[in-house]
């Protein structure tokens, strides 16, 4: 079993309230879940209007598949015009890990 995770820090565009923030973040989370069947949630910066951190995880029996899914998720978020990708932290856990 292989588990890959991404922690993605985002700067949101023209957002002036938490309600506007939700209207930007929720569609991104929903699209990732729908397209790639990953577990995903907003995990930090809940009280800041223009910043957020999205965490996601993918599990598979094939390491290449996990890497491919994480790459696709990162590209999907980076392509969104309403957000700026500040940083991405990737972790990979394989069967050899203790």
Name the structural class: alpha+beta
Overall number of strands: 4
- Tell me the fraction of residues in β-strands, as a range: 35-45%
Question: What is the end-to-end distance?
Answer: 13 Å
Strand order, largest beta sheet: 2-3-1-4
| Element string (H = helix, E = strand) | EHEEHE
- Regarding quaternary structure, how should these chains be classified? single chain
Biggest sheet overview: 4 strands, antiparallel
Brief account:
This protein has 98 residues and is an alpha+beta fold.
Please describe what this structure looks like.
This protein has 98 residues and is α+β, with helices and mostly antiparallel strands. The chain has two helices and four strands. Strands 2-3-1-4 form a four-stranded antiparallel sheet. It is elongated and about 45 Å long. The two termini are 13 Å apart. The model has no long low-confidence stretch (mean pLDDT 91).
Task: Give the topology.
Layout: E1 2-12, H1 18-36, E2 39-44, E3 51-60, H2 63-78, E4 83-93
Antiparallel strand pairs: 1-3, 1-4, 2-3
